[in-house]
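Two folds, back to back.
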Amino acid sequence: MPANKNAVTRYYILDKLLANRYHDYSTEDLCRLVNEELAEMNQEPVSRRTIELDLNYIENEGPFLAEIKHYQVDDISQRTQKTIKKSCHRYADPSFSIFTQKLTDDEKYLLGETFTLLGQFEGLPNLEGLERLRESLKVKTDRQIVSFTKNPLEGKNLLGELFTVISQEQVVELHYHRFDAPEEDRHLIVHPYLLKEYNRRWYLIAAPDKPGKLLTFALDRIDKVVPLPVKKYRPYNGDLNECFEDIIGVTLPDEKPIQTILFWVSDHSKDYVVTKPLHESQRNIRDEKELRRQYPTLEGGRFFAIECFENYELIRELTSFGADLVVLSPKEIQEKVFEKVSEMYKTYDCLRK
């Protein structure tokens, strides 16, 4: 056994890397990634020779006797930019782990509920492997307790493909189309970051290969996802969810200020708006005296305010309530809602003639 007090820690890190099916790791890659994790634990770095001894111990000398596949892939040399052969290592069996342990009854129960939940998302990666794992652990899956609404037009496997490339930090080439030009194949190299659901539709949030603002792609517009393992992945710097805290929906705004939007909701819809806020910032205006005096035609109901950026989804949400919601300020938001309502009225008015 290699004489190093960090040996077990290294074995744990190597175990994760050798089980990864989405990256091709050479000995140099394994050494770099192990040292990165050791640095986060404030432990001393190790040499390539140590990693070689660790691999040999896991495969041949220790109690594990893991079957490790040694293979070659084409790679681009960072120094010469020429294609070279890269020698890589991974477990022959993707489900193998040197740290396998017996599950408790409680853990089996939780796994069963997790299998039931994940089974609703068609196309998730390694779903067949999960099923084999469920059978081998004798984990039962009973009735469905949580149900998700699905969009039947979305590709069944696309969600799983994108889930995989995001979790494995892979750059991809997206092939997609516009609704007004479905036959025109567009493609773009992106760094995928997040899958986000809004209003029964899934979206991919990604950054272009050339640094720029974040892009949003509806999954029903994506035709193909091509992983590019040779390209270096660029992680998002920060908490991506913060980008969506000040908006409704998924359309990220350009350089615009946050708006404070004041609106009135009728008695018919006020409880709905209270129990399902338009935005997390929504608050009820308790001191209504001045507002009642300013808007005497608005009988009953309640006054609310939200603070968010203006985007397409905001206007659509405010318009969706019809006469039960009236925007009071700011004027530009009120005008845009009025324009939408006017267009709707003209369309219906033409049908009545």
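---
second:
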Amino acid sequence: MTSQRPIHVLMASTSYPRDAADWRGIFIRHLAAALARADGIELRLWAPPGDLPAGVESVMLPAEAAWLARMMATGGISHMMRNWRLATLFAPLTLLRMLRAAYRREGAVDIYHINWLQCALPLPDNRIPVLISVLGNDLKLLRLPLMKSLLRRVMRHRSVAICPNAAWMQAPIEAAFGDLAQVIPVSFGIDPSWYTINRTPSWEKPIWLAVTRLTDAKLGPLFEWSQPLFRNCHRQLHLFGPMQEPTNLPNWIHYHGAATSEQLATEWFPRACGLITLSRHAEGRPQVMLEAMAAGLPIIASRMPAHAMTVVDGETGALCNSPQTYGDALSTLEDAATNQRFSTAARRWADKQIGTWDDCANRYIRIYRQLLGNEMHA
């Protein structure tokens, strides 16, 4: 392969937004668009149907697109398996069968870029290098019987890079696959529009935001810890996100359902004092936290690895492990001067450490070239 010929990338993802109003898999669309903009990359995408960025070619067959659209309508493959029913028993097998067929029929591929470990299971034995993007949920997959052995089998005899989107996942992934693959953390990017948001929070009636899928693990102790601090109080807590598990919402909370990025950027982030997440979920590096920091919102977060590697405690936000520390963080960040200092630091951190989606694409392209160089010299 010479430097003059473009790199032909086949990307696979089981999540993709249907349109501009769909929040699901939006980071895949941002990443695909950035890769397609980069010089020397030709990108084909196998993913649920949706509006494709310029320069991205879909390789979906109509039957595959229809099946994936139905899957997305039910919440996606992960949601289907969390809410197991007899009708969903064969969904993972159907998905793997379709992926295997796509990998086999797509010729002239220089490198596979696969999102989520399970999508690597049906890779053919063709020595084509693979980059696998990994999120926090992927670590749960490794607990399943035979999963590590099956994944190790497809990694043999090819160059492999496993790229978690947060560094805290590096150690467990290296323990499982470090003898077969490079493990290189790669942060996702942030759309430049978030960096341009001007904030004018209300200090007399502070507005706090929580943006999350509504599940028990994602919400964590949000309602319990917040009740004495928000109920019958001057401050407000506004909750955004799809209800993916039955959830009893307290009457003092302002629930808006799922929100688009445009709604958050234009209506809510400018008015908010900050973003709250008390998640106990196996997070990678939550994208909404990165976007909030780029917009200059301080973060109040539960003390867990994913949050501790994103929030600089006492500088860009606060990490909490009790109702007391949570209440103290709210009070501290409702001081206008303190909030502005944290806001400036949060935006500076996001710009320096994360950058844009074009920066993210360049991080991946460097790994593509490294993998292809390894393959040439194998």
